Amino acid sequence: MSYQIDEQKIFNSGHAACPGCSEALAIRFIINTLGSDAIAVVPPSCIAIISGPQPLSSMRIPVYQTTLEASAASAAGIKRALLSKGNDHTNVVAIAGDGGTYDIGFQALSAAAERNEDIIYICLDNEGYMNTGSQKSSATPSRAYTTSTPAGKLTPKKNMAAIMAAHNIPYMATATTGYPDDLARKVARAMKIKGGLRFIVVLTPCLTGWGIPDNAGPKVSRLAVESGVFPLYEVENGQSYTLNYGPKGLPVADYVTRQKRYRHLSAEDIEFIQKEVDQNWERLQVKF
Question: Where is 240: in which H helix or E strand?
Fold first, then answer.
């Protein structure tokens, strides 16, 4: 499916991201799609470094840098303050990493989802605490190397998409930088839904943490989709599932062997990951 990206120039060049950073690419399509009538909430993360300090922010919208655990609560508070002043049109978007979403900020996010706060929450998932040296998070996948799992992580990645869909929020979607038109469309879709929490998790490969070349982020993220590691889909009201892009029959080996964080894997390890991916896809496929 095609979508005509209509970018407003809200995200500036000259930011502090690494060359080729997938998070900077994701922020470009997210912020430029949101437009000028928005307020961003950002916790400590690579995103905070990219957005930069006021008045030198790379974003031409107000950016509130909150604590690591409070992104959803801060966004909800700002939105409620706007509504109390009669402003029902400004979008409030929390943009957090996987550490601030899957782990430290999950309590506030789950509570905001339970209350169905009128905010957009976007998680840029690079599968680890990359801003502090590539430690593992609960978003880190099975067998992946991090500085805190040097032999490979022994537990599977938390399924945040399924968890958020189970909250029965108006909109939940997965996206990645390898499909920028799909990402921009989902942000635009979230903007159109008023009254309730909208959640998008975006796979954003980290060049240093994953051990890939500067120009490989989009390609690797496409391989994640095509191998079934990270299917792209949408869920409305926790019930209506729509598949956007799914597996194309590529073996998981085509994905993991391009990343240095998996270079310690044996053939048995790769087979283990393949079985895990196949099982996850079987469970998801029945919902479409």
Answer: strand 240-245
